[in-house]
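Contributing new complexes? Match this layout with guanosine-5'-triphosphate.
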Amino acid sequence: MLSQSLMPNRTERVNRVRGDLAMGIPCLLTNGPDRALLVPLETVTEDRFAALRVAFGVPELVISASRARAVMTFAAAANLGAGPVRIRPPEAADFAWYQRVIDTKFDYRSGSVGPLHVLRAGETQLHQAGLGLIKSAELIPAFALFRLAKSSPTLADLPLMSLNAGEALEELADRPVLAPVASAQLPLEVHDASRLHVFRDPDGQREHYAIEIGSPDLTKPILTRLHSACFTGDVLGSLKCDCGPQLRAALARMSEEGAGLLVYLNQEGRGIGLANKMRVYDLQSKGLDTVEANHQLGFEDDERDFRLAAEVLHKLGITNIRLLTNNPSKERSLAESGITVTERLPLRVGQTVHNQGYLSIKALKSGHFL
Ligand SMILES: Nc1nc2c(ncn2[C@@H]2O[C@H](COP(=O)(O)OP(=O)(O)OP(=O)(O)O)[C@@H](O)[C@H]2O)c(=O)[nH]1
Ligand SMILES: [Zn+2]
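Output block (do not edit by hand):
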């Protein structure tokens, strides 16, 4: 009975794996009879990688399709689908070879890492789950997959977390659930009757906030802003984006109207985390635009899950909103999660000479109303 109650459930096991991957500890992925060790290339140490290579041979390299398109020649990348891309490394490939393929500073426009041998068939749930897990740990989406032959020694003695690939994929796709943790009055410059609510992901680490300005009338659509964290813009006043001015303009509008709700989501860098955002900024300083830079690293244009915002709204008993945004996908995603957006209110502020290109790419490639 005690051991049963201590048995981690699917969510808890996936979260433990995420923590291990972030520390560079491999995890065992299974899919029916297939077993493999998932090794994140960003965090694994050279010693650990070398020991695994001696024990299990040369691992497959797995990268996202967007990364493959960014680092391979146009012809070599032809006919790649959207799923993970499997690459067979040369027999002599060592740790340095894998690191070169994932090196975010390498400028592929002036050369290449050499021809990459893409394995066209055989992509399985192991690869999809591996990529999903690595991305959800905000790591560079690239990993080594050490296949374990049927005759490999049992791994029971290795202190590794084990996960079924199908189970991991279900967990990653599941509707997010947030738990309200704490809330208190917080007088703000824009309105002294404000309240901050903290919600927590079941991973126990990531938190998202709702800031209630005044006393919103729940019988009417609530003036709402969904704002994704931007440390550089919100806190430091970066001129590279429009986040800080948008945040302040949204709060000012709520203050003018006397009430509103700011949902502040910890989805830094459109969901890739601050470290990766700095990597894409570095690529942008070399001429890539905001979307190309995300792809170069191996991410999609936008990795955010706006269902989190719907979850916050539902938890606060809000289903009708007037949404301050220029981003059509926020509106779409909320509608799919049962939130009625009665009106979309544009939020065009904070244009600078430094973010002109960024904003025009958002309009051109991401369909923002700018
Ligand atoms: N990956 C990446 N993220 C960026 C870049 N510039 C800003 N961001 C992030 O983009 C997000 C912008 O969030 P929001 O302002 O809420 O959303 P939006 O998609 O611009 O939509 P609206 O502002 O509502 O119109 C934040 O998470 C920023 O950290 C960039 O060049 N690359
Ligand atoms: Zn920003």
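Reviewers usually confirm one structural detail per submission. For this one: The radius of gyration is 22 Å.
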